[in-house]
Amino acid sequence: GRERRQQRCMCSTDQALSMAPAAAEEALDLDRCLSAALEVATAAGDIIAEAWCASRSETAVEHKGTVDLVTETDKACEELILGRLRAAFPAHCFIGEEETAAAGGVLPAITDAPTWMVDPLDGTTNFVHRFPFSCVCVGLAVGKQPVVGVVHCPILKETFHAARGKGAFLNGERIEVSRTSEAQKALVATEIGVARDPAVMDNIMRRVRAVCESSRSLRCSGSCAMNMVGVACGRLDAFYEDGFGGPWDCAAGAVIVREAGGEVSDVDGGDFDLAARRVLATNGQALRAAYGKMLA
Q1: CB 287 within 8 A of CB 180
Q2: How far apart are CA 296 and CA 277, in angstroms?
Q3: What is the pLDDT of residues 253-265, one digit of tens each?
Q4: Cys-Cys link to 9, which of 55, 93, 157, 162 (CB 3.0-4.6 A)?
Q5: Dihedral angle sign, alpha carbons of residues 129, 80, 35, 114
Q6: Can you state the angle between helices 198-214 and 285-295, rounded to 10 degrees?
Q7: pTM passes above 0.85
């Protein structure tokens, strides 16, 4: 139950406090962690693919908010992923989107301990509407920094993965960011999010206008993680979002972008914070500076 998970997290936190984050990362077998992440993401992807082909109705969809959806598939995938990861890494901490929602939406404190961050189905609204940008996100952070990431889109049959210092890959082939350095030549992505109050919407549209006036064009795929890996493989030159669900949306994508040669920062170009629910992913320093200034 939740008490047992908290005890496990406290145990691993105590262990982590006895060593520096860098030492804690070095003590991990990143290859083993990556292998486990790939295995669970693929297994969860099989559940998504099967549900994608089956008939679905709105009766199978629950609402976490007016426009924020969750399905039986989200829950089944998270149960599979966290169950297997907890069995393989009992001393680690775990943060899952649906477990957090079930606990009232309160995000657990992120410590320096090895912490798995899981979004079982990023792009649930896409999934409900059969828009194919839905993916499994499995990320591992140490010292509050992502070190392993897998983003698996079973519908498009694309699997992105990375581990710190080992490069980024799409279906086993090395990937790298684009070389666009001027905003006016950049293809950018963002998301509108789920908040609909006037002040938030005004700020979203202010930024959309600023980006559209200064860039080649703007896209919304409906998935934070798919946008981030789009930057990593050079399809997109930049992506920003302010106010997404939690660290499970960006942890896996962050290490993939960085290992592909890109930059991951706060929306204003400052330091990236996993818990802030704000991200700017770009192909390098020039666009990080340009869009950080534009979006501040």
Answers
A1: yes
A2: 15
A3: 999 999 999 999 9
A4: 93
A5: positive
A6: 140
A7: yes
